[in-house]
Specification:
By secondary structure, the chain is α/β, with parallel strands linked by helices. It has one domain: Purple Acid Phosphatase, chain A, domain 2, CATH 3.60.21.10. 26% of the residues lie in helices and 28% in strands. Strands 1, 2, 3, 4, 11, 12 and 13 form a 7-stranded mixed beta sheet that branches. Strands 5-6-7-8-10-9 form a 6-stranded mixed beta sheet, with helices on one face. α1 runs parallel beside α2. The protein is globular.
Length: 264
């Protein structure tokens, strides 16, 4: 069994710009950073809201191993059957019982059992089951099952993200935030060995307002009218983190953020 496992985790993939960036660049990025597993949040991959079947398949073909999501996963109803049948596609685990899909994937990568877990916050988002209690239960259940445990916490408020990470510190390998599309600069290893970053950013149009067309976004604020937003065009900025985890202890030993404009 290798000493460390390296996870490449990509922020929210937005529209065709984000998908195209992965298709063209993920292979060389994965090779350059020697990643053992690639995780990407894909809930905005299709037209900025939701993910269609063809875009999900494209993410997997580009080299993504597990796709996480959040509140927009329900926008494309064609994906609902795949939430049941495709174990590598996750929705937040703290949705109510009976909702299609699940929020945990367990697989083997380079001989190491890895659990990827998806949770969603409750501040300015749907009032789901408590992510703190759900996260603690998952962490306890998975400790014996998986050597490495990585959580995507899809949430709005930095306070909620940081509080959850500190609550789970030592029982999971990493807690990385998604949803806001703006990369923060607070990556660190918490006192008991959990890697944390408030938001790992976005893989989507570089010249945009969180992925959306600039002109329309500005007009919405000037006019206060609910103008329809569309995904911006052009080259994408690929953002995320690389996390190294000591397999024997399950604790993170390094976390490094990256953010670069992709080649077209």
């Amino acid at each position: 069994m290798p000493g460390n496992l390296r996870a490449l985790i990509l922020g929210d993939v937005v529209g065709q710009s984000g998908c195209r960036a992965l298709y063209m660049n993920l292979g060389k990025i994965k090779k350059a950073c020697q990643a053992d597993i690639v995780i990407a949040n894909g809930e905005n991959a299709t037209e900025g809201k939701g993910i269609a079947v063809q875009d999900l398949e494209g993410l997997f073909k580009s080299g993504v191993d597990v796709v996480t999501s959040g509140n927009h996963i329900w926008q494309k109803r064609e994906i609902l059957p795949l939430l049941e049948s495709e174990e590598r596609l996750l929705r937040p685990e703290n949705y109510p019982p009976g909702v299609p899909g699940k929020g945990v994937y367990v697989g083997v990568f380079k001989g190491v059992t890895v659990a990827v877990c998806n949770l969603m916050g409750r501040v300015q988002l749907p009032d789901l089951r408590c992510p703190f209690r759900t996260g603690k239960e998952l962490a306890g259940r998975l400790q014996k099952e998986a050597s490495v445990r990585i959580f995507d916490f899809h949430a709005e408020w930095p306070q909620e993200k940081e509080a959850l990470a500190l609550y789970l510190d030592g029982s999971v390998s990493a807690v990385v935030g998604t949803h806001t599309h703006v990369q923060t600069a607070d990556e660190r290893i918490l006192p008991h060995g959990t890697a944390f970053m408030t938001d790992i950013g976005m893989t989507g149009p570089a010249e945009s307002v969180i992925g959306m067309d600039v002109e329309t976004a500005v007009k919405r604020h000037l006019s206060q009218m609910p103008l329809k937003m569309s995904v911006a065009k052009g080259a994408a900025r690929m953002s995320g983190v690389v996390v190294d985890v000591d397999v024997a202890s399950g604790k993170a030993v390094a976390i490094e953020r990256f953010s670069e404009v992709s080649s077209l």
